[in-house]
Amino acid sequence: MKILVINCGSSSLKFQLINMDDESVICKGTIERIGLPIEGGEKNIIYHAGEKQLVFDREVPSHIDAFNTVMELMTQSDLKVLDSLDEIDAVGHRVVQGGEKYTKSVLFDENVVKDVEEMIPLAPLHNPANLQGYEACLSLLGPKVPQVAVFDTAFHSTMPPMAYMYALPYEYFEKYGIRRYGFHGTSHKYVSQRCADKMGVNIERIKMITCHLGNGSSIAAIKFGKVFDTSMGFTPLDGFMMGTRSGGIDPSVVIYLQKKLGLTPDEVEEVLNKQSGVSGISGGYSDDRDIVAKQNEGDERAILAHEMQAYQIAKYIGSYVAAMNGVDAIVFTGGIGENGFWLRAKICSYLSYLGVNINQSVNQKAVKGAEAELSTPGDKVRVFVLATNEELMIARDTKEIVDNLK
Known about the structure:
The protein is α/β, with parallel strands linked by helices. Helices cover 39% and strands 18% of the residues.
């Protein structure tokens, strides 16, 4: 079975074609700057097939055009891997917000589309793009090819009410669904299972904290295989500071900004989502590689941004240790989690009370795509760097649902 995995962002599309007979990747790629102009000769399309790759730039006005480009790459390019689109057996889509209704992956149909549309206010940047990916596939592949929605929020649906409820009037939860949902669920699910495998123990017997660190970041407390709590909340803005997002702040700051600066709700949302976080503190740098470079130059604001980030992450880890009454493993994943050895070391320096004492040499050598245990022999709490694989997790869920249709 060949499954195409689609992950649509607001202006991007990531894809993988996976042979589920052996879970090997046939091809993969990314298309950036969808609906945006190409600037400065930037190469916005990257396509890999085996060890070869194509890198080029092309204006991509819409997600339909992006998906057309994917089909062209797979069937007509110099690195084509398919003779016909008929070879695609199913499509799995990442869908960010599934609300309370979707606690597991489901087959896309008209009702699912309607529900995902109704939840757009809870994920305004992501759910519309996820639906565009579905519509693009439907247009090009037709209704006979099954498409599956794999929800970011589903893995977090095991949280108890004491963790997901906000201390607001209860009717806001009943009428409007205001509660903690959590995100990056597919990533947290994959690395938690992978961590248990690396430890050689049943996931239902251990407590772990998984840290998905990238431009968007979240942490999950996973107790005996089920999410107990997570840092992102009603939206992906909650939690600790991220690339451009503020993370949790005093709610009165929002009211103060509206009154003091005369900002509208949309303008405040813009500030909190796109002008804050590491970027807001450092002076416009949101990419961790830029922050590291500036930090190495002695830039005080870049140093402060990294210090704040590490401190806030360590606080979350500590609070989840208390919430679960212990922890057996801590996992770092995501673009920064897999590459940011400085940040990992700084975070772990706060955790010596747990007996965490990472091997600094191993830590510095662990880079994206690698799997490494950072803890030293005999440590009570084991620390890992594990490469996430959301696409494989989506493909597995898709295969299971499609198999059950037969």
